[in-house]
Amino acid sequence: MPAKELSPAPDPAPAARARSRVLAALLAAGGGPVSGADLAGRLGISRTALWKHIESLRRDGWPVEGRPHHGYTLDPGAARELAARRFVPELLEARRLGSRLGHTVHWYPEVGSTNDVARRLAEGGAPEGTVVVAGRQVAGRGRLRRFWWSPPGGLWMSLVLRPTLPPERLPLLTLAVATAVAEAVELLAGRPVAVKWPNDVLVDDRKIAGILLETVTHPHGAEYVVAGIGVNLDVQGEPVPEELADRITWLGREAPQPVTVNDVAETILQRLEARYLQLHGEGGEPVLAAWRSRAAWLGEPVRIVLPGGEVEGIALDVAADGSLVVEQAGGTRRRILAGDVQRLRPLGGTPEAGSR
Ligand code: BTN
To answer: What SS3 class is residue 193?
Structure first.
């Protein structure tokens, strides 16, 4: 079944959009002056409204200077300096202005789980592409109801999606998000990044990012999906829990240059928008091919821990419905829809312990 056409990219609330557009114009000027009269005219707002947006940016730490008859200027290094110290939601909004994902960003210093916040926003009618980011999560959730360690310094982000995919293509959304996150991490880390079924993102077999999709359905598909993405970026703030120490890694350790939370969020949103539109417009094959091309452990012996037991066999492929195809002893093939995959050491070694 083909996907229904997606609606045009949503417009954020006018006031938020105008402030982001002011910032976007100042950043685009590369430190040169921007005339207040021109800018107000371009944005269709009064000079007083423009002045209020400039004041609000200054209150948030943006060093915008204004000189009579000259215009407003913003030091081009300001964005990088601010983003090096903290996540800057308005910078992400300014960079994602006019795009489908990331036009509206809600930031909180601390939440239980960003997925819960995004869910409440979705229930209240938040448009597709609304993003929630938190400085830390105290009740972060992983797959299979696991606790997700979310200390300050990481990217803890959830997005509201309103896909118009036919029901049979919906499971591929998980693979599309995992592929996009892996692509983004690879761009920033400059190192090969793998995906492990269904949606773990690994560098050298250590988990660097995880994804949790929560879908609210109606009879013909998804009403909305909350896509939760956690990326280990910096773990300076808190000691790494012992049980995770040799199983996870973080971008701050893998990337050759400093990477900010803003960089990671922006790069993920760019890649995710591309894969999301592709899944709607071109069907599942390109996403499946991209996922397979970086899949860890295909062709290898694995054990899959299921809610009611275990399956062992060779992980053969991922099917068009997103399930994992496993060949058991004797040649029987099984499709696994949900479970936890562990690599089996080929020569009788012990399997890896459960994933993060
Ligand atoms: C997993 O690999 O088990 C999935 C981890 C998903 C973690 C992210 S962090 C942002 C969002 N909020 C949550 O509570 N979980 C997801």
So the answer is: coil
Write out the DSSP string of 23-89: HHHHHHTTTS-B-HHHHHHHHT--HHHHHHHHHHHHHTT--EEEETTTEEEE-THHHHHHHHHS--H
Whose CA is closest to atom 16 on ligand 1? 228
pLDDT digits (tens, 9 = 90+) for 175-209: 999 999 999 999 999 999 999 999 899 999 999 99
Distance CA 62, CA 76 (A): 11
Nearest atom in ligand 1 to the alpha carbon of residue 141 is 14
Query: What pTM did the predictor assign?
Result: 0.89
Cβ of 267 less than 6 Å from ligand 1: no
pLDDT digits (tens, 9 = 90+) for 280-330: 999 999 999 999 999 999 999 999 998 889 999 999 999 999 999 999 999
Helices assigned H by DSSP within the chain: 14-28, 36-43, 47-59, 77-85, 89-96, 114-123, 172-189, 251-254, 261-282, 285-293
Radius of gyration from C-alpha coordinates of the chain: 22
CB 153 within 8 A of CB 127: no
The DSSP secondary-structure symbol of 286 reads H
Q: Decide whether any atom of ligand 1 lies within 6 Å of the 198 Cβ.
A: no
The separation between the first and the last C-alpha atoms of the chain, rounded to the nearest angstrom, is: 36
Instruction: Please give the single-letter amino acid code of residue 204.
Output: D
